[in-house]
Amino acid sequence: MWQLKKEKSKPVYQQIVELILDYIDQGHLLPGEKIPSERKLAELLNVNRTTIVHALDELVSMGVIVRKRGSGTSVNDGKWGVYRGSTIDWRQYLSQGSTLKNHEYNQKVQLLLSNEKELRLLDVYSGDLPLGLVPELDLPTISWKEFLNEEKRQDNYGYFPLRKVIVKRLNQINKLKLNVDNLMLTPGAQQALLLLVQVLLNNGDAIAIEEPSSFYQLPMFQAAGIRVYGIPVDKEGMRVDLLEEKILKNRIKMVLVNPNYQNPTGTTMGLKRRKALIDLCRKYQLPIVEDDVFGELYFDEESRPPLLKKMDPENVIYIGSFSKILGATTKIGWVSGPVKVIEKLAKIRSELDLNMSIFPQVLAYNALENKTYESQMSHLRIVLFEKMTDLVARLDEKLKDEVTYYIPEGGCYLWLTFKNVRITITDYDFLLTKGVLVTPGFVLGSGPQSMRINFSRLTPEQSVILVDALVEMIGKR
């Protein structure tokens, strides 16, 4: 069994790491099974003992094998998701206010938005739907005392009726097999991430995210001492072929992806790429966190690929939210994973005193139970597609030879990249003077050549104004 075909292109210790991982993946090495001693392994693979020690050290750091004095070395029979203790004082962190990095450009935009009533702004910077597109749902006829009485139906996992209806909806739409015990409600997707960082990671651990990504705006990773490595995105999603190198070189402990209508590029991860990501993370025993906050904003239901959660239910932690549909102030999200992981998330949230208010949960429950909800969602998807199509037509008319973009299959973002002219930060300042607010690539882990446009906030007339401003921006040189 122990045979190593040495390759000149890779260090020998790395080849040994991959060999042992392959044996585990193929079932030749089982959880809890002992592996040969360092000396014996060196003889079997015909390498020096120092190389074996280096390889085993790597596998220990990855959590794949464990060493016990007097018992030797064996394959780890545990699972990821074991609570490892506090990484940061989250009460202090949350009390500091904003959960977005305060980039200088963001400060300028926020200043303009605070005076929006006095200024005529074209805002395609904000990530939310405009108020006119938020579904019109009647508030429940419920008294104050009835609201308070509903508190009895909430525990550390959230309001039970809402959890139940979300699970039912996820199972129907995405063909999942979730139970209510697999899901915990959160006040938005960010708290779900915050709790996962607290439970799954230690200070100094590394995670892989897409590049560019909206996750670059979240300071929680830096606050927790988490190292973040970006993996480039192409039209098929995260470059899984580049991810493995990062896993081995930087000891990645978790992979965070937004495979459906990725923020900001709008790309949808293809089925082949999804399978490759799952296989790779199984090989290295890494959890995948699937952020699917735009999942219901698809343009064509038939073309939707399966969720990563459906493809690998046990190894994928799934995050969703209503904030992109019912408005940012709704602050209702959820996280779904193995029962033991959800239990630990709920326990930590309770210890941090971050439990949710009953009011938005009851309102969200009534929204989902509203008979017009599905028809309004269908209408919303049609309107978003029309707005995207209109913007693309304007760009083709006046900037066809100057820009490239990926046409998304859903969501509300278009990622625009300039081809023939070098864009700088001062160009974005020029747009601000015109009252045009976009999201530059440099606040999302990319460069100034690209920008994110929230087309959901555009009327046809505003699409013309936006494109004319971009033409003026590159023509002023």
UniProtKB/TrEMBL annotation:
Highest taxon listed in the record's lineage: Bacteria
InterPro entries named in the record: Aminotransferase_I/II_large, HTH_trans_reg/aminotransferase, PyrdxlP-dep_Trfase, PyrdxlP-dep_Trfase_major, PyrdxlP-dep_Trfase_small, Tscrpt_reg_HTH_GntR, WH-like_DNA-bd_sf, WH_DNA-bd_sf
GO molecular function, one term: transaminase activity
SMART domains associated with the record: HTH_GNTR
Cross-referenced Pfam families: Aminotran_1_2, GntR
SUPFAM superfamilies: PLP-dependent transferases (SSF53383), Winged helix' DNA-binding domain (SSF46785)
Keywords: Aminotransferase, DNA-binding, Pyridoxal phosphate, Transcription, Transcription regulation, Transferase
Transcription among keywords: yes
Domain HTH gntR-type: 10-78
The family this protein is said to belong to: In the C-terminal section; belongs to the class-I pyridoxal-phosphate-dependent aminotransferase family.
The protein's name: PLP-dependent aminotransferase family protein
Species: Vagococcus proximus
